[in-house]
């Protein structure tokens, strides 16, 4: 069997590798090259060196979008994980109808981001209208609106992952801790949280990358208004590439920088949380 697998391995892997190369690797490498070019289409690209990257850091909208995205990502990541973990703790207890509650909490994740953005725009603007405000009144209102939206959408999904982690904890560990005199808080801190660190790693990674990559909800909810004050990084790149003639190369350079930032942050986060798993 092993010899047969080794013999026919290239036959099964080759189609996937060809598709992956055509659909991902080639466009990715071409995108890096285009970030050093001035172009309107792929065929008229002209190499100009680091000029596009210089314009990126001279663009105040990019720098604002960068710190605004970092703030949004940190706040949404913390809120989503804390609330999802709390809900998971409750719904792993012997609660009547807990399967129905799990389904209800998970359902928002099935709705598309654009639709969610327009729905929550109507809801939140209706509430803010009582104070004479809207989501586009300032970047702060837009930030709060997006945090509410992504929390509502993603808490249920992260809850499922945390429930899986909590249910895999051996009951004997919790019983032994209680016999040794540990109260509920000590059981949570010394037993449950250390044992669900793999789930925390996954959920933190997902919420971190989702926060940085958020686009469609931002587009539908505020579209960067007012004056690009609520514009996240992905929307800023989109508007640069498609909204400013002659800035296609700058938009591509922003995309490369965006990739490096997200990749670096994700690697650091993954190593930090995985180190906690090893310690346990």
From TrEMBL:
Subcellular location: Cell membrane
Keyword Transport among record annotations: yes
PROSITE patterns: ABC_TM1
Positions of transmembrane segments: 12-36, 66-91, 103-123, 143-166, 187-208, 249-268
Any one GO BP annotation for this protein: transmembrane transport
Coiled coil: none
Protein name: ABC transmembrane type-1 domain-containing protein
């Amino acid at each position: 069997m092993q010899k047969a697998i080794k013999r026919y391995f290239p036959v099964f892997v080759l189609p996937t590798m060809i598709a992956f190369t055509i659909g991902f690797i080639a466009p990715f490498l071409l995108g890096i090259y285009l970030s050093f070019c001035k172009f309107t289409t792929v065929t008229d690209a002209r190499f100009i060196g680091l000029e596009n990257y210089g314009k990126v850091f001279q663009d105040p909208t990019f720098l604002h979008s960068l710190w605004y995205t970092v703030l949004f990502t940190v706040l949404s990541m913390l809120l989503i994980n804390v609330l999802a973990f709390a809900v998971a703790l409750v719904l792993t207890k012997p609660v009547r109808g807990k399967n129905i509650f799990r389904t209800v909490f998970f359902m928002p994740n099935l709705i598309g981001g654009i639709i969610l953005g327009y729905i929550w725009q109507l809801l939140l603007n209706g509430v803010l209208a009582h104070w004479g405000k809207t989501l586009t009144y300032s970047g702060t209102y837009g930030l709060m609106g997006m945090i509410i939206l992504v929390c509502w959408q993603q808490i249920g999904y992260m809850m499922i992952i945390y429930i899986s982690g909590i249910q895999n904890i051996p009951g004997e560990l919790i019983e032994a801790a209680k016999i040794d005199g540990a109260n509920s808080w000590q059981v949570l801190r010394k037993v449950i949280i250390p044992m669900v660190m793999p789930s925390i790693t996954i959920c933190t990674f997902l919420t971190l990358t989702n926060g940085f990559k958020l686009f469609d909800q931002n587009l539908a909810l505020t579209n960067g208004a007012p004056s690009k004050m609520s514009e996240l990084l992905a929307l800023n790149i989109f508007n640069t590439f498609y909204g400013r003639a002659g800035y296609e190369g700058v938009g591509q350079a922003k995309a490369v920088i965006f990739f490096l930032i997200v990749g670096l942050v994700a690697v650091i986060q993954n190593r930090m949380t995985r180190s906690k798993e090893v310690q346990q």
